[in-house]
Sequence to fold (546 residues):
Amino acid sequence: MKRVGATLNAALRAGLLLALTAGVYAAPPAAAADAAAAPALAGAASAAAAFDLDADVNRVLKTFDVPGIAIAIVKDGKLVAAKGYGVRKLGEPAPVTGRTLFEVASNSKAFTAAALAMLVDEGRLKWDDPVTKHLPGFQMHDAYVTGAMTVRDLLTHRSGLGLGAGDLMWWPTTTFSSDEIIERLRYIKPATSFRNSYAYDNLLYIVAGKIIADKAGKPWGEVMRERILAPLGMDGTTTSVAAMLKAADYSAPHSKVGETVTIVKPMPVENAAGAVGINTSAEDIARWMTMLLNGGKAPDGRQLLSEKQLREMWTAQTPMKIAEPKPPLAATRANFAAYGLGFQLRDYKGRKIALHGGALQGFYSRMLLVPEEKLGIAIFTNAENSGSMTALQWRLLDQYMNLPASDWIAIVAAEEQARHKEELAKVGKASSARAARSQPSLALPAYEGEYQDAWYGTASIKREGGKQVMRFVKTPDLVGDLEHFQHDTFIVRWRQRNLNADAYVTFALNPDGSIERMKMAPVSAETDFSYDFADLNFTPVPAPKN
Fold:
């Protein structure tokens, strides 16, 4: 894929979300996008070459501009592949290997679900226990939801919270503790009624991680080590970024800044244990997939979790909307899509798939299990690119399910380009339609000061070096310069450009001309949903009286 600009990072993150929420890689809705993609798609199915894993992955690296990829494949209880491609870090020759560690982000959720399943097997909790039975201080915004929410509800994305609600308390790296994040759940207003619909969230997996830690009397990471990683021989896997950075073989994170893929700093998120936290390799994840496909048995024959609980994890809990992809992606359409416990569930060509994706700054990952085929596939990238994984996903599923081959690499690349082009056009249209000659209602110093949100806390706007600078007090990387957009709306341009999350900042005034509130919204629809700026409702903090 050609490099097409800064917001492509966010487009790829959005593509990963589509894979999680709709079970398909959604096609662009506009006919113009179809036309733009057509030349690259002509004869795609017939163009698919004979299967060659090395050739396919190397082509994906080049097509999607990804520095490194690791692949793990298990079939019928045997290891087919656990190897790396490309480099761990741009500008350095060290190759990605089967032992290179990657942050796998939300693929950690299945580990949290499995640990809870073990506790259910042992009779130490039940899936339908109230959360307050195990965490008496737990509280949601609504008193009924507080009392009714069960351990099962923590894992199934049906709490009533909006998409990614509250994620700004841990993403990017914040100074909140896990306990502070859980305590502030009570201030986040629901987007829908309880158990009404699916909306992906992370905060309730942090709560689930807290239950696991409390039951064991030790941190979530230590529980993962003792109960899952050590029994499976996943000796290279870590449960913190700090530990990963001490390993001999780990990958650096990469993002696109402008038109250039660049190395970015790691994003430690220790306060989100339970939702994220696992850093693993192709060799180690193969052991995890083999155990799951072998009915919960470790290599030594020990039953880590029962087949009954494994079936529960792969049983539909929350229905998900099914997208309607256009040709040539129509062949990937799901007939059902749901979320289980730590896994998304869908079908492909008559087979049930349990899968999940993961995304953190500089890393994307995906894991797929086809239980009826005893097939497991994991794809790790050291870049923010979902198209690379999607293309390999369909290519590998077709190969190991003995299905006709299609040139998914060309198909997905063309779709991705068309969708991104459409979003760029929307952003450009919004910019050109603004009232460019309008002026703020107040003198610029009047917008400066501190602002308080119920669940996040404090943000400030202050003049620094001749610019108005916004800072999120608990998030060191959220520092940006304000520029006037129109009327009482500004745009904050974050100084850490690889965030790709510039946002509108709009002020509402009281009748006396003082500021009533400050609201935010992403400039682009491609902005990662964990930048949940739209959920914030800032009000001015009164200046101290002399």
